[in-house]
Amino acid sequence: MAASQRGSGRARPAREPCLADRMRAALWGPAEFVGPPGPGLLAHGLAVGAAGTGAVTAAGAVGMWAGPPVLARGEAGLMVVAALVVYLAVLRAGRALVGIVAVLGVCLTLTVPQAAAGLALAERGRVEQAKVASVERVPGHRRSFCELVPESPHAPPGTRIWRGCTAATGPGDDLTIVYDPRGRAPLRGSAQPHERRATALRLAALALGVALMSALAVVRSFRLTASTAQAETHRKTHRKTQGQPEGRTPGEWQRGTQGGTQGDTDDRKRHDREG
């Protein structure tokens, strides 16, 4: 893609990069354009970010509702994140930006199954009561883990639940559990409304972060092509050969030269008449 299509400003003049420039380009991308990025480059970045985020989110949602259960466990999301990182590496995007995208992508992949499971249980979950076999309180943490009795329905032996398990819960107490009749979502305790809201906000923040950082990595990966750099060098050389100052078009330079010559001729004629 030409520089005029990918950057709104002129291409940066070619110069010998120093060590700091090379380090900056390696970490954050070269971004070899002046001014804001062009619409084509910006659209490319937004498309990459939206596609990666949408694929990770869709994989978890499809696996929880209708697709293969393997999609709901997050492996497919990790593969999508890996493909996104490889694509950015092929574009030679900044390594720091690629690393940020990878970290945010992994966090998003781990959050999507939890959010999808909560949504599935809220829509089709069944509520039952289960007996608590034992309670484990972790020092320094606000959560307590309740282990259900082996005879609990829809709960495999050794199931531990923290939702609904409070400091006042003890062995033999009844605990409200929610299970998925389709068996796709894992069993959990009854969630509070603020927990669902917090999960949704965390999911939205991570998805937005992955999309924006991916778009930024694509935009800043723009480099001048060899033909563009040669054309810029040839244009400057031609101007110097013709004696044309930089920053002026050939028409402006010619009009200015003709105007100066005509002015000198008029001055000589006026001097002859006065003499």
TrEMBL record:
Q: Which domain of life is it from?
A: Bacteria
Residue ranges under compositional bias (Basic and acidic residues)? 265-275
Q: Is Transmembrane helix given among the entry's keywords?
A: yes
Q: Give the UniProt keywords, A-Z.
A: Membrane, Transmembrane, Transmembrane helix
Q: Disordered: where is this region?
A: 228-275
Sequence intervals crossing the membrane: 41-63, 70-90, 96-121, 200-219
Has UniProt tagged this entry with the keyword Transmembrane helix?
yes
**Protein's recorded name:** DUF3592 domain-containing protein
